[in-house]
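Record type: monomer structure entry
Structure origin: computed from sequence
Chain ID: A
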Amino acid sequence: MKEVKRSFFSSLGEVATAVGSALRLPIFATSRFAVASRFMPMPVINALIELDTPYRVDDYRFILFHKADIDLWANLKKYHIEGGMLGFIGNGGIIQFDKIAPADAQISAVLLNYDYMRYILNGRLPKMLDNKHHNFAISLTRDEIKIVEQMIELAFTMLHQPDCDESATNMMFATFVNYVSSIYERNASELPKSKSRAEAVFSQFIALVNEHCTTRHTLDFYASQCCITERYLGTLVRKASGMTAKEWIDRAIIAEAKVALKHSDIGVTELSERLNFPNVAFFCKYFKRLTGLTPSSYRES
């Protein structure tokens, strides 16, 4: 392969590359894809990612957890991750770690960028990839774990061959994605078909918040999209989640703001405009009320 190697944590840039090289991690990465085979992420995570600090992924990430005890948020959904689980988060999703353990946690992973994903699948993305805010974490059977492990290890080995064929690489990744998609679809079909009214509305509400939080801050918009009154939406969301609808909207807005402040050089004034606040003073007061810090202080912390 003649591509320039890049960081496994592509959204975190050159620092990750330097740390990864120094630690000699089992990672093969290019501008289009990355593969990690049975590596221990704690040194990299400790060096690059603060707990309670969200970051946005700029690719599709499939992660097999061999050994783990992790609590994280992905697009406003909370997950507890253990060994034997397969996780996925789509391009543009936001991740925030609450807890990462144990020290010898071990994962394997495949990362594919958006254009490359569409290319190898001939533009036809499977259902699990149809939304940038889609993510899941599912427990695998022993046979599924073995197959996913072998597919990742095969990819890792092939990519290190000097005569690795590009078409074979493309087919290999396409086969991997389709196999993971089949696991996802099978798991989805085995879930209970019926949801309570509160659960169904809450799922719709969270999807809408993920999509529109940067421009829509008020409850009336989400209520109209769900075709119910604001009061009823608030009642159902609290019943399903234990939090108010406004708290969920605030959580999403703050996550977007934190990502921009920590992982870009955008100015606070421009950020307030991008997040659709009437002025920068209002945005700063809002941010400080919910985080205890001004945007500038948070960026510098």
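Annotation 1: The first strand starts at residue 27 and ends at 29.
Annotation 2: DSSP finds twelve helices and eight strands in the chain.
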